[in-house]
């Protein structure tokens, strides 16, 4: 019989219970025991949901207090020397110090953080040393397995494979590949496999997500070597080799040749690979079919998915099939039943994580017992799929007509950067190394409470407007007193940099509880793009104009770019992404024009998702970069020369796409560089990036406040790479999640650092 499986479940809880637990622990209002007990209750609830849905191999080890890659670094004993200080008295203290940094007892920055492949999830980048030693630290994982076995006898531990683990990290102080450490690491995995055997485990999910990438000979050889070397330690364990987000392509023959019992295929993002897989699968191997989209919210077309599953069953027999999602459901909201405000027609097209489990079970039952056994469910699904396909609400003739009329001139500024720079400096009169922030300021409990009261109808519109203007006034005054050169209004009216625009753009709906984890306790609620997109009216002008009226210094208008709105939403999958992105770009272009007409001379159009949207395979990247760059230019090129366009990117590797970043032709780009200690800036220097750049001088994802001297050191590194006439000084990212006390202290140090380095250059 085919087996219903799942690669992982959201960690945050149906009502973000994990977020509240973590933040209470960090504030000191609960202790470690309360945190761990609460986390276990979330895990148990997740297990129960999956068992109730009919999942037969329960994933265990997919839960994390902060990040699963960091978990695996600790499970193999890879703690950098700086975090082995006795001032970190517990393993939990050490864990969160590595994730967030700390100034309690020990002054330590956080480890580097970057995007998990092409998703908006951020993982902590492990640091390896050339003399790295490894030691198994799996007691917590083994305890989870025991607890899960009390809920469901058949559990499937989720193991991040050694090759991916090493390559997701960085080998400090060496140009060599982290794979030079593989033979040191393998004994730890041998010991782990032995313990899993002792625990009575039958199946293990062996995640090697790097199989979705272009692999060199060394990486391919490492995958082969690792699994062959570990084969004697496996005993009776069955391994399902798992990767996701892309087709295996040229790695497919390698995957099926390895000593594993099953291979997982992401058939949502690589449907074409099934034919080749059926040719390469060995007679004793199982095939895991990723048929349900783990990254988006649309109902699976069960009829089409069942055709695919039946094709595989006819070729190798249903007894060798595992039915699954395309990837972990980590990237999906938890449960659609909690949504009461989404339009009923649109809601009928959706499936969140809990509903995706049902889809997996329906497909498994249809294969095992025949489609007639689930005829009612298949009929209901087919009706929803057809309703969405034929709904007039997904197509707007006015939007499509404007989109078709886009001309080549729409993608170009009036003059080149050098000419614009002269006119902008005449207008703005900024000093050398001008200081600014990325946009948002702290969203205090008072701000969140006022927004919630307004949404519930408990606070009148006029009173809410007065509150927002008061907060904006205080924010402008604080920035002026700190000596910041280019100000922002603080974004107190905005819940999120994408959701805020999704609430106002036609073609979107916004959920009430559709939260997904971005990193740690940071959750986002992506809006859902179901139809053609256009702007109903001005979205940001009123508050930005008000902020500018309070000061003689320039105030930046803050917009989110079309690529980021696209990728940080749940994207409609019934038309090319390029078309949707250009529709959004036209809406942002209109907003930029209105800001300019309101007297705003600096407009920031953030694109932190530009790199995130990059296809995983190099052969697919050029086409994407062309339309992504065009979308930004379409959004930003409708303003006059003297209007300065900024953009912002963070937490990704930029070097491989620097030519495309330059093609954006933004006057100023700000990037995250503090966690890497300006390492990311080196590429901009060697590439000779032509426009202005603001490398972040402190990490806003950590509560730590760095000293002025630390920021001066980073700025000196920046000056060595980028001419000071083209350098800006700013934090890594927006300040929404921080508190005012640390924000003011950090910005005071930042301004002082800029002044000190400015004086050295005079």
TrEMBL record:
Residues engaged in binding 5-methyltetrahydropteroyltri-L-glutamate: 16-19, 115, 120, 522-523, 568, 612
Q: Which domain of life does the protein's organism represent?
A: Bacteria
Q: Which GO terms describe its biological process?
A: L-methionine biosynthetic process; methylation
- Residues annotated as binding Zn(2+): 648, 650, 672, 733
Q: Which cofactor does it need?
A: Zn(2+)
Cite the binding residues for L-methionine: 438-440, 491, 606
CDD domains (alphabetical): CIMS_C_terminal_like, CIMS_N_terminal_like
- Keyword set, alphabetical order: Amino-acid biosynthesis, Metal-binding, Methionine biosynthesis, Methyltransferase, Repeat, Transferase, Zinc
Q: Where is the active site?
A: 701 (proton donor)
> Which residues lie within the region annotated Disordered?
386-411
Give, as one word, the top-level EC class: transferase
List the Gene3D superfamilies.
3.20.20.210
Kindly list the positions annotated as binding L-homocysteine.
438-440, 491, 606
Q: Pathway involvement?
A: Amino-acid biosynthesis; L-methionine biosynthesis via de novo pathway; L-methionine from L-homocysteine (MetE route): step 1/1
UniProt binding sites for Zn(2+) 1: 648, 650, 672, 733
The chain positions of domain Cobalamin-independent methionine synthase MetE C-terminal/archaeal read: 433-755
Q: Which InterPro entries match?
A: Cbl-indep_Met_Synth_N, Cobalamin-indep_Met_synthase, Met_Synth_C/arc, UROD/MetE-like_sf
A Gene Ontology molecular function term for this protein is:
5-methyltetrahydropteroyltriglutamate-homocysteine S-methyltransferase activity
Q: Which reaction does it catalyse?
A: 5-methyltetrahydropteroyltri-L-glutamate + L-homocysteine = tetrahydropteroyltri-L-glutamate + L-methionine
Domain Cobalamin-independent methionine synthase MetE N-terminal positions: 4-310
What does the entry's cofactor note say about binding and number?
Binds 1 zinc ion per subunit.
Q: Which NCBIfam families match?
A: met_syn_B12ind, PRK05222.1
Spell out the PANTHER family in the cross-references.
5-METHYLTETRAHYDROPTEROYLTRIGLUTAMATE--HOMOCYSTEINE METHYLTRANSFERASE
Describe the task this protein carries out: Catalyzes the transfer of a methyl group from 5-methyltetrahydrofolate to homocysteine resulting in methionine formation.
Question: What is the name listed in the Swiss-Prot or TrEMBL entry for this protein?
Answer: 5-methyltetrahydropteroyltriglutamate--homocysteine methyltransferase
Q: Which organism is it from?
A: Blastopirellula marina
